[in-house]
Amino acid sequence: MSSPMKRPYLTTLSLTPENQETPIHFINGTVDDQLFFRRNHFSYPPISNLNYWLPIKGFVLSPQWVSLRDLMKMPSKTVKAVLECAGDKRRYFEPKVFGEQWGKGAISQGYWKGVPLRVLLEQAGIREGAKEVVVEGHDFGKRTDTDSIHSFTRSIPIDKALHQDTIVAYEYNGRPLTFKHGFPLRLIVPQWYAMASVKWIRQIRVIESSFEGPFQTVDYVYYPNKENTEGAFPVTTMNVNSTIQKPLDMAVLDTGKHKIEGIAWTGGGYITKVEISTNNGENWSETKFSSDTENGYGWVKWVYQWLAAKKGEYTILAKATDSTNRVQPDTPFWNRKGYGYNAIEKIKVKIE
Ligand SMILES: Nc1nc2c(c(=O)[nH]1)N[C@H]1C(S)=C(S)[C@@H](COP(=O)(O)O)O[C@H]1N2
Ligand SMILES: [Mo]
């Protein structure tokens, strides 16, 4: 009997903190823990499930301390969602930007089960005038820009916090969260880039102002301008995007039939169309979807049958469109910190 793969097969960008991406051609339906990319700002936190209580406090009528046991008895919900790091594909920006040089594999998809954040907030009773919900992680450390210690803490606007599919998750693909992906509790904010999905929740706090922590106001902000903060705006929902999984970039293939395959996803609506060009954009053809398009917040799998009759070098492009009529742009939206890359997907192959 062949045994299942025992080790994660991930490409390492850094080990402390651990930042690793998924070889994109390995991804199929859902991404299991062994293949799930890892993105951390700090070392893993010292944490155990013994005596784990979740505080829900701040601008509420009756602050709550919920034990894990009680939390698991509350109404729950399972949400299929793509998690994509805002820095996914960063290495393709020109000019280059600082930050982890992610390729195309800082993305995953799976089923998250948990308690809607709304249920917890309603239990605590949100006070009139509440503006944001701040979620703090158990991990902490020094940032490179200051000497002070920070925890990984992020906020979401109150309406997103009350959205029925924003959940405090304790299971992934039918099993308890693994430690590296946020055990015992993790926020899941579908449609937003994954920085919003805070791992190892330490506390949830309702505030009546705007949260100003460095992971909110320094990082995860689009700075379109190299030198100043002109035109800056926060990173929120995912852009419409696609990735070619097969063939591999720079593959050498025989003449004949080849399947071009990949995924497409969006943070707004659902994917309506993915087009392929095998001649660097001169002609485009529509691909077929091999999965549902309106599948919660998941990605779409698409496929295109290509007949490579002639030998030579080919530039293959993929371009996704979503139901809000957003299309992948020809040129990426360059920003200083390199977030949200979604220019038309491109690979090269050689037919011999
Ligand atoms: N507590 C905590 N939550 C976090 C982070 C972190 O460093 N600490 N990183 C965020 C970012 S930027 C991403 S892309 C995702 C990565 O989740 P993963 O490591 O499970 O893939 O978690 C988010 N939640
Ligand atoms: Mo991220």
Structure description:
It contains 4 helices and 24 strands. The chain is mainly β and 352 residues long. Strands 5-4-13-8-9 form a 5-stranded mixed beta sheet. Strand 8 and strand 9 form a beta hairpin. The model has no long low-confidence stretch (mean pLDDT 95). The ligand Nc1nc2c(c(=O)[nH]1)N[C@H]1C(S)=C(S)[C@@H](COP(=O)(O)O)O[C@H]1N2 binds next to strand 3 and strand 8.
What are the secondary-structure elements, in order, as H or E?
Answer: EEEEEHEEHEEHEEEEHEEEEEEEEEEE
CATH class of the largest domain: Alpha Beta
Strand count, sense and closure of the main sheet? 5 strands, mixed
Q: Provide a count of the helices.
A: 4
